[in-house]
Fold:
Amino acid sequence: MVEKTTYNQEMTNAPALTSDQIPPSYARCFQADCPKADTCARFLAGKYIPTGKVWGDAVYPTARQGNTCTMYKQTRVIRAAYGFKALFAEVKQKDDTPLRNRIKAYLGGNTTYYRYHHGEKLLTPEQQDWIINLFRRAGYTEELHFDGYRELYDFSPT
Structure:
């Protein structure tokens, strides 16, 4: 069983963070002397190692050149979304399948689409914008929102 450590970063309205919220393959950093450590999501992730985990992806010291790091990712709290029922509630039947297929292609296929739909995966703000803009281009501008939202730390790969 994974031990959950809670950590509240000094950010306004930052949600509690637990080790299980960080993807297992997320590259973690342990360079406390880095000038960007306090604002780096990879360094934050390095503080949360599940009990029993003894190895994994890491950021090497060679990524850092002076005050810059090729692996730096700013810590940010995002409003992640899930579920598509609300988006499709007022969609005309003729538009339903084409819109759904475009979203599936964008997200990576049927399985991934349904993982976002059921909240197993959460949409980043950038993904939300892409999907909302797809609906707007199709002529839908009223009440565009997802089924649910959660505030969480962004550990997306890019």
User: Anything to note?
Assistant: The two ends are 29 Å apart (CA to CA). Confidence is low (pLDDT under 50) at residues 1-12. Helices lie at 41-46, 85-88, 93-107, 110-117, 125-137.
